[in-house]
Amino acid sequence: MEGELPAAPECSSGLPAGGSGGDSPSALLPAEVLDLDGDEDDLEVFSKDASLMDMNSFSPMMPTSPLSMINQVKFEDEPDLKDLFITVDEPESHVTTLETFITYRVVTKTSRGEFDSSEFEVRRRYQDFLWLKGKLEEAHPTLIIPPLPEKFIVKGMVERFNDDFIETRRKALHTFLNRIADHPTLTFNEDFKVFLTAQAWELSSHKKQGPGLLSKMGQAVRAAALSVRGVKSRPEEFMDMNDFIEAFGQKINLIDKISQRIYKEEREYLDEMKEYAPIHTLWAESEDGLADTLGGVGSCLARCCSATERRLSGLSETLLPVVHEYVLYSETLMGVMKRRDQIQAELDSKVEALTYKRGDTDLLTEEIGKLEDKMECANNALKADWERWGQNMRNDIKSAFSDMAEQNVRYYEQCLATWESFLTSQSDLASKEPCEESP
Fold first, then answer.
1. What is the pTM of this model?
2. DSSP one-letter string for 139-188
């Protein structure tokens, strides 16, 4: 039609071309945010002049897939409509002659028309989650795929299948699937739908439809060669992204280590404090004159122990998982940037071959045109997803630290009230004791 804008190149990512939102990647975080001293013993994590609230705002991206009218339509001042709910629960151990593994129940409830039913229940093992993540990276190389928990956690002699490990992994897998469900593009991925709905034998059959081993090896070899070659002139905005990823990775790793150390030391403090309450109770039985006082001290210690346990439970559920997830996200971001660079390196190599006429000129020209479109789509997808990820990251970290601060305030208020009440009772008791008569 006359006056119609030219269509942007179609991108496999499903994100709109050129959806960067106006802010440069370098503006995602000010340089001072998460600034840490070199000494890991310094627990002053954030600088005095910066906070997570200082970051620039982002515009949330709207879904562009035609598969769900519910997700396409959003009226002004109307909250987002969620039409996909996923729960990961009921871990179950399986022992065979060859291996021992855990499966998790995945329950999906949806109102989307492309699903054959409104509710699905399947069981998946960790390898299935790994397969899904690989398929998402393959289909959307420059989108930020949520991270999976590590395959193994080796800290001392931790039992691989103990209850704490299984529960920690279950929560992480639950978060992984719901991150995908909330993503404007990944949520409509066909492999994701198969993962949620197919029975075990159907999923196994679907996996075999992918590229063969030799094809995968060829792709890996080509990617490795391009990665060694490197890129000649990465655009400045992606240089800024890369600098941020490196700094963010270093600082979030340090915060993770500090948080884990605090938790360990607080746990040791709690274990020692638990011994004091019964000791004071036993002591009170042998000291008639101090029985009430010693018993009161023991009671206060017991209440403080309970408050400390609640505080540590909040720390392990509120802060530690969020911080560690973003440690894994920092590794994911480096992988995304590497895949973007591989596309540019391939384009650069074709342009160089055409410049020096190393091959069929017409074929090279055609390949360059396709790679230029692919590069544009990859860049636009990354820029748009970078902003979405930045918004989520700010919200998650702000919420985690705010919740932890509120829990700490409540904890110290409870402990203070416990000891103040005890001291008041002792003062009242002392004031009621009869004064000794003068001789």
1. 0.74
2. H-TTS-PPPPPPS---SSS--TTSHHHHHHHHHHHHHHHHHHHHSTTGGG
